[in-house]
């Protein structure tokens, strides 16, 4: 069975970051009102600079939403695995019983043929059930990844309203950002805000 795919979340975030940078680069290369081509505004706004970054690995691992989703996903995964294990054991017992009767000559050839057909159908059902569970888990994993990503992106939009950064990059080990000045790291601030917002939203739903 599948585990919650952190790599997929990180790759999506980094891909979006690269696309945004690409678009903004060409926007900034268009002639401005002052007639200068390719001039980029590096003016410091309300934040500490025009660029900041968050460590995606840290955000994902310590985000309360991820922890909750991970718990639910793991619980359903274990439930499916347990059900498959029980059904497989029942099937194996039927196979062993059939083989034992054949070896001892306790059933006719016609009965053996019927039993083989029955066991073949049961095996096919097990395979179909396994594929169904894997497909269901994969779909739920994809939806959860998108929900987490959407939550982070929405929060960063709110967060930046009074920060004024031109870019907020996603940094992760082995990712596209190979070096980043730690002075531009806003991970702790963003993570704190994300968890506070998530807690507030959960508390409001309980009321």
Walkthrough of the structure:
The protein is mostly helical and 207 residues long. It has one domain (6-206): Skp domain (Protein Binding, DinI Protein, Chain A, 2-Layer Sandwich). 69% of the residues lie in helices and 5% in strands. It has five helices and two strands. It has helices at 6-28, 56-62, 64-104, 109-159, 187-206, and strands at 51-55, 167-171. Strands 1-2 form a two-stranded parallel sheet. α3 packs antiparallel against α4. It is elongated and about 85 Å long. 14% of the residues are buried.
Per DSSP E runs of 2 or more residues, the count of β-strands stands at 2
Q: How many helix segments?
A: 5
Instruction: Indicate the percent of residues in helices.
Output: 55-70%
Record the strand order, biggest sheet: 1-2
Classified by CATH, the class is Alpha Beta
CATH fold type:
Protein Binding, DinI Protein, Chain A
Based on Cα principal axes, name the global outline.
elongated
Query: How many angstroms separate the termini?
Result: 36 Å
Give the C-alpha Rg.
27 Å
- Helix-strand category: mainly alpha
Uncertain regions: pLDDT < 50 for 5+ in a row? 17-48
At the fourth level of CATH, the homologous superfamily is Skp domain
The oligomeric state is: single chain
CATH architecture: 2-Layer Sandwich
Overall mean confidence score, pLDDT: 81
User: How many domain modules?
Assistant: 1
| Major sheet details | 2 strands, parallel
Question: How big a fraction of the residues is strand?
Answer: under 5%
Q: Helices and strands, in N-to-C order?
A: HEHHHEH
